[in-house]
UniProtKB/TrEMBL annotation:
Pfam families: AMP-binding. One of its GO terms (molecular function) is fatty-acyl-CoA synthase activity. InterPro entries: AMP-dep_synth/lig_dom (IPR000873), ANL_N_sf (IPR042099), Mitochondrial_ACSM (IPR051087). This is medium-chain acyl-CoA ligase. SUPFAM superfamilies: Acetyl-CoA synthetase-like (SSF56801). Belongs to the ATP-dependent AMP-binding enzyme family. Residues 8-129 form the AMP-dependent synthetase/ligase domain. GO terms for cellular component: mitochondrial matrix. It catalyses: a medium-chain fatty acid + ATP + CoA = a medium-chain fatty acyl-CoA + AMP + diphosphate. Keywords: ATP-binding, Fatty acid metabolism, Ligase, Lipid metabolism, Nucleotide-binding. It comes from the Eukaryota. The keyword Nucleotide-binding applies. Its EC number is 6.2.1.2.
Length: 144
């Protein structure tokens, strides 16, 4: 069994994710706590959300999906999950019905969603998860 430099055993990860390609993300409870506090700050400060506000997340099951779930719980924000298979019409309906103030998606899905966003009057902020940046969208990685 592996030991840390000071002789302690490493803690069991709070979060352990493996992609189809074998890429791994492991967060300790401490890291998940710290990252989710930072993500909660991004939602309340950069995205301008308050307790009780609703967020629609159209994301594949990437680590940020779980991170944002915990961050929303911390900030008292209601997360409305949507799968990546939703059509533009589905997303438009969810945004209107929920009165969501923010939409979160991956940089690869963002272009497909942009067509429905102008119809959503309450939408205040758009956040992407991933490496690429996009005009008019905030980027979670940069803000963290």
């Amino acid at each position: 069994s592996e030991l840390l430099q000071d002789g302690r055993k490493p803690a069991n990860p709070a979060f352990w994710w493996v992609s189809d390609e074998g890429e791994e993300v492991k967060w300790s409870f401490e890291e998940l706590g710290s990252l989710s506090r930072k993500a909660a700050n991004v939602l309340s400060e950069a995205c301008g959300l308050q307790r009780g506000d609703r967020v629609v997340a159209v994301l594949p099951r990437v680590p940020e999906w779980w991170l944002l779930n915990v961050a929303c719980m911390r900030a008292g924000i209601v997360l409305i999950p949507g799968t990546s298979q939703l059509t533009a019409k589905d997303i438009s309906y969810r945004l209107q019905a929920s009165k969501a103030k923010c939409i979160i998606t991956s940089d690869t899905l963002a272009p497909a969603l942009e067509s429905v966003l102008p119809g959503s009057q309450l939408l205040r902020s758009k956040l992407t998860v991933g490496r690429g940046s996009r005009d008019g969208w905030l980027n979670l990685k940069e803000l963290l």
